[in-house]
Structure formats: structure tokens, C-alpha cells
């Protein structure tokens, strides 16, 4: 009898658990006004890849990244024309702060935008971000004073809070088996921006001088010589903003307190759900300890150091390439710089798609890290001597050098991302990447300003020191890489347990 009662009790418990589970799923299905529930049902009904949604995500990411990449080919000339610098050597000083204000704004707003996206939805965040590109990128192109350029650039970084939410959106808009593809689209769109952005900035800046048959000095593009590249990007952003109409919302808009209570009862009835509850409880405690996870933090520090180096390099390279020969620059045009950056961006895209997978397959993603850092240091040491070259020889070598430098940077960045994600559990990766993005944005905000100040100092000290100013410039830039390289060794660096065992 006792055994029968136990059997009857367990059967009743099983029926209650099944009923609770059915009630939960029915409650969620019945929430017809919730866009997140509606999308989940659509994804359950269709096993195919949501190509159209992925295309919209790709376009949105591209237009959000273009204002960053298009600036560098013409920034030197824009600061010169704004007449804020009293001497030619001071142009780099002022240019650095224009480059820094965007990243400073993004650093301040990264966390609030993430909270906004979690509360009000991913789609409003995406739409507001793209609208900010349309408005403030256009106003930046119409800047008539240095402070107008600073303010519009800073507001663009402050209000374009798409970096974190779009990654979450790309993984939520599709089924689990397609999440990797969705996130890779975010990365690939930014790689394409490395090609298109510099080309837009380099070829479309100062159109009245470059294409006098198409643009007159009296036209708006003649009076505002840096408006055309900004206008083209703003038009593309407006088009992507229209495309956002068809983007489905992925966030659930309903009060889940009661549903969560039933979930907890259901979880107590089933072993698998009980493990999920335990994981959820431990997740809150482990999140507090992320900053104490040295495997994660050492990878984040490496990522920040090399992000600072890459951003400073891009600022210094763009300024150095267009500066005068009397200051040991290359005297290239904005069109030349745009071509160099576009070629290297396309080369990096090919490298990431065709070459790096084989490199990672045979060597692993981490082993090429240190050789790439060492080769990058040796390569940058040769840059000052390119000022002695002219003509075709210079253009060939500067394109090869820029391509190799960006390939080494891509190898290091990929390794840093892998190290960060393998240092934590899957449930912690969202928070871990949030910490990484915030700290990385802080370093990227410092990099252009510091690079601009350093560049201006180097041009004022071309001679009279133990080394020419341009060689000291690239030496200090290399010191950042050397610091990053030293931090890859013990006791500064701790390899994640998964990789140390493999």
C-alpha cells in the first residue's frame, strides 16, 4: 500500500509538473501583443535562416561603422581648413581630440544604452542610433568651427549606442543554430566598413578641388568641402533606418513575475530545470566575481592595450601620411590615404575569410598571437624610413606595410576575443563582453587624443634629439605593443583552463 501510495504520489506530481509546464507554454503563446513571443513562435515554425533579417542587420551595422572609418583620410585637411591650429605642426594635436570625442561619447553611453535596450527593446535602440548617424554625421560635415566638429562628433558617439545591443539582437532574431552566423554578420559588416569607409572619405572629400567639372566652388559641396562623404553616409543611414521598419522586436514585453513563479515550481519537479535554476542562482553570484577572474581580466587588459595601439596607429598613420615632407611626412593626398586604407581593409577581409581559418586550424587561434605582435613591432620600426621614398616605390611599400600591419592587428584581436570568451562560462559571456567593450572604449577614447598630441610634438622636434621626431613617434607607438607583448607572459597572463588543457 505504501508503495502504491508513493507511485500514486509520484504520478500526481508528474501530472502537476506537466500541467504547470503546459500552463507556462500556453501563457507565453497567448501573449499575442508581445513581439518577442511572436518572433519565438515564428522561429519555431520555420527552421530556415532568416536571410532578410540578417541582411537588415548587416546594413545597419555597416552604416553605424562608416562614420568611424571614413574620417581619417580627410581629418588632417579638415582641421587645417577650420584654422584652429596656429602652426602646421599643431594640426595633429587638434585632430586627435576630434577622433577621441566619438569614443569618449560611446564610453559614457555604452552601459545606459544596454539598459535602455533591455527595458524598452532592441529595435528602438537601433532606430535611435541610426537616426543619430543621419543627424549628427550630417552636421559634422557642415561644421564651420572646431568646436562644432567636436560637439557633433561627441553627440554621435553618445547617441549611437548600437555596438552592444546589435550583438544581442543578432543572436535573438534567429534560431539557436543560426546564432553564430548572425553574430559573424556583425563582424563582417565592420570589416566591410574598413574598405568602404576610407574610400568614401578619401575620394569624396574636397570634391570641388578633385572633380571641378561636377562640383563648383559656389555649391554646398564647394563651400563645405567635407560634407559630401558625410552626406553619402547619412543617405545610406537613412535607407537603413527605413529598413528598420521590417526588423522584428526580440524583447519580451510582459510581466513575467507569475510565469517565473510557475517556472520555479516546474523546475523543482524536473531535474534538468532544477539544474537551470541552480545555474541561474549561481550566475548572480559569479557575475560579482567576474572582475576577480584573472583569466578574463588578463585577456581584457590585452584587448584594451592592443585596441589603444591600433586606434593610435590609425590616427598617426593618417596624419603622418598626409603631412609635409619637411616634417618627414609622405605628402599624400586624402585620396591616396583612402586608397591605402581601403586596400588594407579589403586585404584583411580576404585574410579573415580565406587565410586565417587555415592558420587557426593548424596552429590554433592563440599561438600566432605573439609572432604577430613581434612582426608588427618590426614592421612599424621601418615606417619612418619610407619618407625617403617617392613615386610608385613609395605607394607599393606603403600599401604592403599597411596591409601587413592590419593583418597582424586582426590576428591579435581575434585571439583576444577568443581568450575572453573561453575564460568564462556561456552564461557569463554577455556581462564579460560588456565589461570588455566599456574598458576598450575608454582606451580608444584616449588613443586618438594621445596620438594627436604625440604627433604634434614629433613634428616640432624633427631634429635636435637623440633620434628624429618621426622615429621617436613610431618608437613610442611600438612601446605600447611591447607592453602588450610582455603582458602575454606569466605572471601577468593566465591562459584559460580549457586552452591550457588542450
From TrEMBL:
Q: Which InterPro entries match?
A: MFS, MFS_dom, MFS_trans_sf
Q: Would the keyword Calcium turn up in this protein's UniProt record? A: no
Listed GO cellular component terms?
membrane
Keyword Transport found: yes
Q: What sections of the protein cross the membrane?
A: 54-79, 91-113, 125-144, 150-170, 182-206, 226-248, 296-320, 340-360, 372-390, 396-419, 431-457, 472-493
Keywords for the protein's UniProt record, in alphabetical order: Membrane, Transmembrane, Transmembrane helix, Transport
Q: Which residues form the Major facilitator superfamily (MFS) profile domain?
A: 53-496
Instruction: List the Gene3D superfamilies.
Output: MFS general substrate transporter like domains
Membrane topology according to the record:
Multi-pass membrane protein
**Residue ranges that the Swiss-Prot or TrEMBL entry lists as coiled coil:** none
Q: Where in the cell is it found?
A: Membrane
What protein am I looking at? Major facilitator superfamily (MFS) profile domain-containing protein
Q: What is the lineage of its organism?
A: Eukaryota, Viridiplantae, Streptophyta, Embryophyta, Tracheophyta
